[in-house]
Amino acid sequence: MFVANRMTKNPITVSPDTKVDEAAALMKKHHFRRLPVVADGKLVGFLSDKDIIKAAPSPATTLAKYEINSLLAKMRIADIMAKEVISVQVDATIEEAALLMCNHKIGGLPVISSVGTVVGVITETDIFKTFVDVMGLAEGKTRLTLEVQDRVGTVKEIAGVFSDLGISIDSLITCKKDDGSYEIVVRGDFSDLGKIKESLEQKGFTIAHMVQIGQDK
Fold first, then answer.
1. Which residues of 95-119 are buried (b: 16+ CB within 10 A; e: fewer)?
2. The whole model's pTM is what?
3. What is the pLDDT of residues 145-183, one digit of tens each?
4. Which domains does the chain have, with CATH numbers?
5. Residue 217 has pLDDT above 50, yes or no
6. Under 8 Å between Cβ of 1 and 91
7. What is the 3-state secondary structure (H, E, C) of 63-95?
């Protein structure tokens, strides 16, 4: 899964000289929380709604509303935007984008091409949607959690149990725990859970948790 498949393409951009009130109006109209700032075709900054909030006078100000609007109309994006921009390449994986956002505690990234032009924006919402799609959560699946030790061939053995039963697996992920063991999460359309449980136990595996997640949950 790549950033190019999940980002908002051809995003609206602003220039460093754009007035703050104009940018705020754009964001409100299109329901954006972030805007790439571009000069001469290159990314030079990133503007978020938080930047605008910080630039606006305190709610405790004695300024009248028209005075506040006048103040914002005089301010340029260049005065409040983030200049040291963390971006991601268009051919990066969705995991790389998620890791960047997590490490830097940010909610969105401008996406740039190999020549440095802005081609998209990817946000935490896009990451969440990707997770939902990859895990098949919206389709209504049964989720089985197995607790296993770190041992070569474990995943193959578990997959073999389902294969022997003629049951397809929609997704299988492994999650390492602090003690070095693993949780293996298996999702699919499983009808005969009793038979699955019995077959797994015969191979030495125990189902620690099971639940059905679907559209009505």
1. eebbebbeeeebebbbbbeeeeebb
2. 0.76
3. 999 999 999 999 999 999 999 999 988 999 999 998 999
4. 3-132 (3.10.580.10), 135-213 (3.30.70.260)
5. no
6. no
7. CCHHHHHHHHHHCEHHHCCECCCCCEECCCEHH
